[in-house]
Amino acid sequence: MVNFIIPLMIIVGILAWVLRPGKRPTTARTVAILATVIPPVLVAIAAIVFQLLHNAAGKTWVSDISNTCFIVGLGLIGVAILASAGFAIARKGEVAKGIGFGICIAVVVSIIEFALLEGLAGV
Q1: Which of 22, 104, 112, 122 is spaced 20 to 30 Å from 31 by Cα?
Q2: Nearest to residue 76, comparing CAs of 119, 45, 51, 44?
Q3: The whole model's pTM is what?
Q4: Are 66 and 47 in contact (CB under 8 A)?
């Protein structure tokens, strides 16, 4: 698994550097970043909370609800990728770059969420 995560983090880091917002990002770019990052972060928080509640009940495996929340978070990232492609085709470059930067942040959040969920499950 580490053989996959390290190159993924390097690629995400490079993309985040290329797509970084700069010192004074436009309003459209800022809104695109927030709209891309907030839903996966909320789903990740919900997944971790459900896993903690599952562990508090004395169960040591990954909760089905946490697993579903993780998959929903990945689906949100997929939808963001499609939205970024759509905005790029429509020549809305600032919005597409903002969504791309938000995707980078969401991928990092998903990797951290995955590690936390597996750690809490005792795997």
Answers
A1: 112
A2: 44
A3: 0.82
A4: yes
